[in-house]
Write a structure and sequence with these properties.
Two copies of one chain form a homodimer. Chain A is mainly alpha-helical. Chain A folds into two domains: 83 residues, Arc Repressor Mutant, subunit A; 81 residues. Helix content of chain A is 62%, strand content 9%. In chain A, β1 and β2 form a beta hairpin. Chain A is elongated. Chain A starts with 5 loop residues before the first helix and ends in a 6-residue tail after the last helix. At the A-B interface, α1, α4, α5, α6 and α7 of A face α1, α4, α5, α6 and α7 of B. Chain A binds a DNA duplex (28 and 28 nucleotides) through α2, α3 and β2.
DNA sequence: TAAAGCATGTAACCGGTTACATGATTAA
DNA sequence: TTAATCATGTAACCGGTTACATGCTTTA
């Protein structure tokens, strides 16, 4: 499997952490990986099919009383091998996050100062919300899943989100100040 | 124009900062916006055409001696209005940067510790490189373009990159330490 | 003489989102 | 009775990348 099928590797990885249905994998990603990964059902179900085609996963059909039928996927040994191969490949390039606020800011000379400051304040609020969400997830993991073998790695990724979000929050405060001291022109 | 045509707004914005050809806009983006925006010619030329169709830009053909012909685009007053309307729309949601390293880290229990640490070291190096690049661009703007009316806004966006990259670098150092103190299991 | 820079463009492809479709159970 | 949760899937669409095509000039 080529290096670029991130979606397939993400699902392959989730199979090793105890998530076995497309539905539960989506939930896991939305809940605990959402600071650095997201995914839609439109990707998940075709991707799972491809994993089976490649022999990296196997399906077990389970019919439940009063619930829709389940397709439970399990990683095969060749799937595990493929995952390990991918894990050790060094990351080739840093992500470039497209940032709408920064794009707007870049052209904000075209706009009056109060409107620009308002923009930053709204962004600031959203960052605080995000920070609290991450903290909440971290506390929950420490309380409820600290015994889970993957937990230390989950915490590490959350700390990345907490650190960079914190830095962004500080930047908001500093930037508001900079803008206030910037003389406007017509 | 809908809120989502970021590419078109980015180009519209660049028209106000003194970049008028597809080629020079691409250069500007690669050189000074690349920490939060990137673009390919495959997007630029069709998008410029659309801006003209909408009446937001006008073309002036210039033939040069010994160089290919140029198409110079200029923003119209209705284009300026559309840009302003977009600038003041608050950012609806924070960007989720898909991060390959974090994805790998999330599943790194499947891998031995030294390999994981190596991954972080490589990422660390790339972050330092990026940090230095941003610092270089900032210094260059302060030295050579400090008179440019947009310069204060360029600096602000660079500071965002510097702050968050710095935070990521600190996280690398801390995480390496955490991993070293983490007892491995088989 | 080869590579890099200037300059514009298109077609094929690909990853991902959104909307749609289905259908049962349980909690408010 | 309505909404939410569980559960799986497809088709249309869209934004963006890559590869390809052209061609002249300047620098190494």
């Amino acid at each position: 499997m080529a290096q670029k099928n991130y979606t397939q590797y993400a699902l392959l990885g989730l199979l090793t952490t105890g998530y076995h249905t497309g539905y539960s994998m989506k939930q896991m990603i939305d809940g605990s990986l959402n600071h650095f990964w997201k995914i839609s059902y439109g990707q998940i179900y075709p991707a799972l099919k491809m994993l089976v085609d490649k022999g990296y996963a196997e399906v077990k059909y389970t019919s439940q009383q009063g619930r829709p039928d389940k397709k439970e996927y399990y990683i095969t040994s060749s799937g595990k091998e493929a995952l390990k191969q991918w894990l050790k490949q060094p990351v080739q390039e840093l992500p470039i996050e497209k940032n709408e606020l920064l794009l707007k800011l870049f052209f904000s000379r075209q706009q009056d100062k109060p409107t620009t400051i308002k923009q930053i304040e709204i962004y600031h609020e959203k960052l605080l919300e995000r920070y609290n969400t991450y903290e909440g997830i971290k506390k929950m993991i420490l309380l409820e899943s600290s015994e889970h073998k993957d937990a230390p790695f989950w915490i590490i990724t959350l700390d990345y989100g907490l650190s960079t979000t914190h830095a962004a929050i500080d930047w908001c405060i500093k930037t508001k100040d900079t803008l206030l001291n910037l003389k406007e022109e017509e």
